[in-house]
Give the backbone structure.
Amino acid sequence: MQAYLDFEKPIADLESKIEELRHLSSEGEVNIADEVGKLQDKVQKQLTQTYAKLTPWQKAQVARHQNRPHAKAYIDGLITDFTPLAGDRAFADDNAIVGGMGRFQGQSVVVIGNEKGETTETRIKHNFGMAKPEGYRKAQRLMELADRFNLPLITLVDTPGAYPGIDAEARGQAEAIARSIETCIKIRVPFVSLIIGEGGSGGAIALAVADKVMMLEHSIYSVISPEGCASILWRDSDQASVAAEALRLTAQDLLKLGIIDQIISEPLGGAHRDPAATMKRVGDEISKILEDLSDQPGDALISRRREKFLSMGEKGLG
């Protein structure tokens, strides 16, 4: 069942009328093919107009859409012979981060992603994609595995941020994120990262210090969530839309700032309206990048990766 965002009400009304007409047609009362066609044209026009002028806050809502494909959907759609690997070999397995080995278009790879879950039960199981230290240590283990066996690494980022609970802090959350970033920098294999929904704070950066960082068209990537920023600056989370404007968190803003390398367009109305088309576009772009990086020496990859992210800091200080 299609779920609609607040700003999609005109679209919802039109599609509701289409469903009503189809119901009448199925009962044999009327032939409504022409009328349905006209309404579908109006839906397409409304979608085009709406999604051509989304505000940053509206993009944040699309990035969080309940039907938006999550990491496991991309793994199922793009990776064959996938073997999940669990645990950090120190404390526990963190279901907020999934990962393992498989084949991408016939090539062996390691894949790591934040998983939010699809239902209430699975969202609780995966802690809404918010990892604890053991999650980032599992990610480090898988990155090192990729490095050891010379396998390209693909990461799928979709998290509001690292889990902020007391137990996570007690087990070294900040250190685990820092070590994960360090591991991203020092591995000697091609590394592609894709922001598929939310890229929140250090919890996202821990998986995204890659040779190529891409974002889906309506995903977001920021140092803090709009609600968190509003709560700090104005002590009022209702100012989230204002914060979203200031944070420059859209893919379009971040490409201009040089924080990401590429934007992958989404089907009209967002990735959730046509997951299969989204998977195809993502697969095509990852394939091109891995082909470009495949003949690069490990030392060169590390050097360019380090320079890329260090230069962002220099620009920020300038």
Summary: The chain has two domains: 6-53, 60-317. The chain has a mean pLDDT of 92. The two ends are 49 Å apart (CA to CA). Residues 10 and 300 are 52 Å apart (CA to CA).
